[in-house]
Amino acid sequence: MPVQVEKQPPELFVITDEKSSILYAPLRRVMARANADAIRIALDYAADPASEEKQDDDGRAVIAALKEHGFFERRPFPNHEPDFRPTQVTLFPTNRCNLRCSYCYAFGGEGGGNGEQLATINLDAAKRAIDLIARNAQELAAEGMPCKNFLVSIHGNGEPFCAFETLREIVWYARDLSERLDFPVVLNTATNGVMSSEQLEFLVANFDNVNISFDGLPELQDAQRPLANGSGSFKSVDRTMRRLAEAEVNFGIRATITEAMVTRMAEIAAFVADNYPSVEQLHLEPVWECGRCVTSSDNTPSAELFCENYLKALDVAHEKGLRLVYSGARQDMITDAFCKVSSGSFTVTPTGDVTACYEVSYRSDPRSERFFFGRFDKTIGDYVFDEGKLEELAELNVKNIPFCNDCFCRWHCAGDCAAKVLEARTPAQHQGSQRCVINRRLTLNQIQRKMDWREEDAG
């Protein structure tokens, strides 16, 4: 049954699901099932508080109960103040890769599929970026802001460990700087998990958080994420995850869901929970048709199939104590932006370009005109930023997307991923995508589960 939604001021939504109607106030994080009379009374009062005087005793009791739970409490819309003082940086050491994933968004190991050069980041560029965020973090902490560390993330439009010598220098520099400044650093990385024993031990010894790209089942991993020579990669990734678990390193798993594997999501959740019980979370994300998957058979699953099988996987995950996540369903989060793109996300590509989105990492990508806002200038040994571009990026928030005004997910998914759903369009031109269907359905499920838990507790 499709979800029907009606929005009423001030930020009260009526969501109709297969059971009944739900009154939902996202900014106040409150929700309740209500009959038609209670909803009418609530909406009338929200639109005009003077309407309470016209209600009978039952109507006033409804208003009083909703007031007690905060349904009419007015709160400001989420609003970030763009101020480009980053305290975290994502560094792409290289676009080289030892895998040839069939759906890779960046054509890893092939120069973006556009003939761009295979490159390794300039160490001066990496060090200067770390200097910049560390200084900002210290200054903000001195100003009384809640800033306890600076964060260096190692990611890539390739596999970071394919530039191991450079990666090692980056990590050592960040650790040394932290000691000199007497200010903590947090080191995170995302990796495909295929690495030598030396690299694996370095990973274990130096990173605070690790995210492994792994498609959840041995045969799926080997088919969709083969080595560059075509052979399977499961054994290597399995070894890495077992070593991380043994060393008690925090790690999560991200699996990309294609049309061919969508019905196996529950099986994936069970396999991960049974084989890697220490994993922090399993992130399931439908493939977005770009990059290498445009020329492969890895199609995006329908929104309906993804939701159906995600919810089956969620039941398995709950039963086994595994946290399951999808990026667009986050009912616990209140924000005006899907990610940090609109507030100056600081990512440095192997060629020294600064992008606000790690999915846009090549100059030949048409979206780079929007998302690239700086570069490392070797002649001056420092970064040059385009303030005009930063101002334009600051507009990529849900308050500028009229399409989202009537959606109960408005302050949760916040308009969704700008690189995916907007591309070169303006926020005002956003007309939704299949991800909107997924975001609404899975966010509704989170609301429903919360109400079910509260009813059980009340019982």
Instruction: Return the CATH topology of the largest domain.
Output: TIM Barrel
- Using the CA coordinates, give the radius of gyration: 24 Å
Q: Helix coverage percent of residues?
A: 25-40%
Q: What is the tally of helical segments?
A: 13
Tally of separate domains = 2
Q: Decide which structural class fits the backbone.
A: alpha/beta
Descriptive report:
The chain is an alpha/beta fold. It folds into two domains: 1-76; 85-459, Aldolase class I (TIM Barrel, Alpha-Beta Barrel). Helix content is 35%, strand content 15%. The protein contains 13 helices and 15 strands. It has helices at 36-47, 57-68, 123-142, 164-181, 197-206, 218-224, 234-246, 265-275, 303-320, 368-371, 387-393, 418-421, 434-458, and strands at residues 4-8, 12-16, 21-25, 30-34, 88-91, 150-154, 185-191, 209-213, 250-257, 282-286, 324-325, 347-348, 353-355, 372-377, 382-385. Strands 11-10-9-8-7-6-5-12-13-14-15 form an eleven-stranded mixed β-sheet. It has a four-stranded antiparallel β-sheet with strand order 1-2-3-4, covered by helices on one side. Strand 9 (250-257), helix 8 (265-275) and strand 10 form a beta-alpha-beta unit. The longest helix has 25 residues, at 434-458. It starts with a strand and ends with a helix.
In brief, what are we looking at here?
The protein is 35% helix and 15% strand. It has 13 helices and 15 strands.
Task: Furnish the topology, listing elements before pairings.
Blueprint: E1 4-8, E2 12-16, E3 21-25, E4 30-34, H1 36-47, H2 57-68, E5 88-91, H3 123-142, E6 150-154, H4 164-181, E7 185-191, H5 197-206, E8 209-213, H6 218-224, H7 234-246, E9 250-257, H8 265-275, E10 282-286, H9 303-320, E11 324-325, E12 347-348, E13 353-355, H10 368-371, E14 372-377, E15 382-385, H11 387-393, H12 418-421, H13 434-458
Parallel strand pairs: 5-6, 5-12, 6-7, 7-8, 8-9, 9-10, 10-11
Antiparallel strand pairs: 1-2, 2-3, 3-4, 12-13, 13-14, 14-15
Helix pairs in contact: 1-2, 3-4, 8-9, 9-13
